[in-house]
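Researcher: We're teaching a course module on how sequence relates to structure. For the next exercise, students receive a sequence and then see the predicted structure as tokens, so they can try to spot secondary structure elements on their own. Here is the exercise chain.
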Amino acid sequence: MSVTVITRNAARHIEQTLRSVDWAAERIVVDCGSTDDTVALARPLATLVAVRAWDGYGAQKNHAASLAAHDWILSLDADEVVSDPLRDAIAGLGADPSAAACRMPRVTWYLGRWIRSTDWYPDRSTRLYDRRRARWDDRPVHEALVVDGEVGDLHGEIEHRPYADVADHLARINHYTTLAAAQMDAERRGVRAWHLPVQPIAAFLRNYLARGGYRDGVPGLVVSLLGGVYVLLKYVKLWERRHSGRHAP
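Model: And here is the predicted structure for the students to work with:
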């Protein structure tokens, strides 16, 4: 099995990520021009480090898979770690799993605790796949595997540490909502005035009450509130595109 990781300025995490998969036959890193020490830190731990100009999340991941010597690929982000239980579950699959891909839960570290509530958990992500039967799509944000065949489930978690602090979280929200609004615009998604108050409030209530954010104390409250902010910004940016002449032709 090959592990692939796409990177840009991931020096804070890349060593921990690669050490968590030192049991894999191959570890491939595709960097898109980091200005920190990502590449230097990755080289001693990776089987191959390649540099490729950014071409979108899905395209980078597909390119990384194309460099692999093995057909079964485990795709990780540079801020993720494979837990020991997940490692054992993958090992238990054997050399030729019957499914075309497998999904697994992902747990996020935020404000000093693992968040096991809200939309953030279990966040089942399809990351282990047979590249002959699956390929990443080209959506600009929240890319996904398109799988030709059965998708199985694995126990054991991917451990995710995406944010250095709340300021980093807010910067990511700003970036990803811009991409999300562009995607919604291209899909001809509608936006009405009522979306601006109603959709963020609905997102907060879903996260905090329906999906148990209250169980995670203040961090769960913050995650729920910022989930609403994400939805608000996404719709505001879509409205802005529609009313500034920048919408899709």
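Model: If you want an answer key for the exercise: The longest helix spans residues 217-242. The mean pLDDT is 95.
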